[in-house]
Amino acid sequence: MLANKVSRQKPCHHCTHRPASAAPDHSTIHYEKSWLYRHCSSLVQGDRQSQKAGQLFSGLLAMNVVFLGSAFLSSMIFNHVAITLADVWILLSILKVLCLCWIIYYVLGTSRQPHAVLHRDAHAGPIWLRGSLLLFGAFSVLLNVFEIGYSVIHIQCKSQVQIVFPCIEILFISTQAVFLWHHSKDCIQVQHNLTRCGLMLTIATNLLLWLLAVTNDSIHEEIESQLRDTALCRCPNTTACKVFQKGYILLYPFNTEFCLVCCSMLYVMWKNVGRRISHHHASHIKPKFKLQGVVFGPLLGAAAVMIGICVFMMYQIQATGSAPNRQVFVMYYSYYIVLLPLMSAAAVIGTIIHALEKKDLDTLKNPTRSLDVILLMGAALGQIGMSYFSIVAIVATDPRDLLNSLILSYSVLLIFQHITQNVFIIDGLHRQPFAEAEESKEEWNHDAHNQRRVSVLELGQEIRRVSLSYIHTYSHLSWKRKALREISFFLVLCNIILWIMPTFGAHPVFENGLEKSFYGYSTWFAIVNFGLPLGVFYRMHSVGGLLEVYITA
User: Fold this and answer.
1) What was the pLDDT predicted at 6?
2) Alpha-carbon torsion 516, 522, 523, 526, what sign?
3) N or C: which end of the chain has fewer CB atoms below 10 A?
4) Where is the protein situated, by its record's location annotation (predicted)?
5) In the predicted model, what is the mean pLDDT of the chain?
6) Where are the domains of the chain?
């Protein structure tokens, strides 16, 4: 009985290892039992629970909207009679109008309330991402202008309602681009649930627009039928029709890119709703980009860019004049087969250097970096998936043919390059910046600032001093920092040229005819429109990640 009574007694942590004669610490006991302590703890816990509940509810809202839109799109694909493309456009137009209403309310109402935006996430919405948002948004608006012109030319065999939908799309794209340019860094502190639901509704709408762009090949099939002279609706004005056709096909990938960029930026805003950034996190000064300590990386990268531009121009001349011949495809794939192993080797060497250095990992909570990792892994699936489809098609047909063997090698190397580069970037994003004394750099910057004031007669001497200071800075860097900066800058330039080539019209995966004849036009169209925008988005996002690695090195 006595043992049971003793075992039911609540243990006193404050009496542990304390002599029996020692008096209890009444102030500590009083603090732990005070009303203020229990009330503040319940408030913090309740705030976290309400935050999770708001995220869950808004996530469920987005999931239901995406499922509803996907059901419409699937019905349109498999049953053209019951659900038409016009029905899908009506649904998306309703969603766009709702999103526009919320964006206007957020800009004019929510964000202007007292204490609405106490913090701004410095990592969210970097300038390169917002710049790409404006670029893709401008091209998407131009795409819809071309679509309106194409519909006006075919007004005798098209519905007048089809002109209304691109107009709503132009308004939606423009408003969303301006909204994200100014408010992508906001950590909103009021109207949490409404803001989360509005952001998730906008994300779901962009996902459905991306899914429609991937699966809807109606205009492409119409253009193909006109080229084969089998179309029921012909252009009365041949010159204008060709301009709208070429412009539509050239600008089509930009719309999907815009949707993906918007989804990523809106997701970061959704994660930052109600977020309070600590003083240590806010006062952390991010290193600035300085072109110091790199020589061979820019030279090799510039050579890759120049050769790539020449290959791209030759390919485009052949593609616009007539159907690309076999030699152009051989030249295009040969360029990739030479460049991809170099990029893979550079990424592997950089990963080994990361493993050799003694740097602490950055463990601070950073929603932007977490999203960067997810986007790198997810966007890489586009090109990797297309590569596996190409491998299957080539192995099943004739892998010993010269062009087929080049495409096979290109596909395998592309998979390996994506994997190695992802490992290098993700490892570099989680590294702490080098904590070295910046005295020599500040002295160099001070000297450079004073040298700007010299007269024109001393220009040659100024250039010589600046060059000597650059060489001095480069020679004082450790070999690990030199190698990481060279590798990062080389990969930045390589990813830029690999972004330019497919973005502005070089699509040999669709034009070589191998996979299209193997899988069929509609199937390969959906695969390419799923993988190609993700591949372009991956190259663009890799440039941002590699610049972060370069800065921290």
Assistant:
1) 42
2) positive
3) N
4) Cell membrane
5) 77
6) 48-272, 295-433+478-552
